[in-house]
Design brief:
single chain, about 200 residues, alpha+beta, Gyrase A, domain 2, 4-stranded antiparallel beta sheet, 2 helices, 4 strands, rod-shaped
Amino acid sequence: MIRINLLPFRAARKKENIKRQISVYILTLVFMVALMVLFFLQLNSKVQTLRREKAGIQKQLKTYASTTRKIKKIKKQIKEIRAKLNIIRDLEKKKTGPVFLLDEIAAAVPKNRLWLRSLSEKKGLLKLQGTAMDNETIALFMTNLEKAEHITTVDLKNAKLKHLKKYKLNVVDFNLDCKTYSFKKKKPKGKRGRKR
């Protein structure tokens, strides 16, 4: 019988497998390193592009900075002008308010039956003093005043019968208090509880 020694063949085959595995391992490492270098170069390129874009945007922002300052200044001026216009409108309203009030009072007076002796207005409270032919005329005058747009309430403070001997005539002197459009109620002061 012939004996064949296969050990050298197996050893050669084992060496070959080891060489192949080492070469595959080295090739894999080279391939991974190449991929990492390629990935790094791409990232570096993107970073450089983003830096250039950032520099360009910052240059644009610098050119817009003066425009932004001008816009802020214009907005501030617009705000000031609006405040001034509101003040002017308020002054015009308050200026024409008394004119309308006097016109409404004049329109409310019954002709040839009622005469006003005095009229005063302070902080929205209007005080009227006058003389009327009778109580019905005063009631009509008060009703007319209540219908006026710029008068909110009308209160009769007193009415006194008076005889005019010279004319042989009885008349009624009266006092009225009215609240006008500019009347503002006083805010009640809050009561504070005492600490015990």
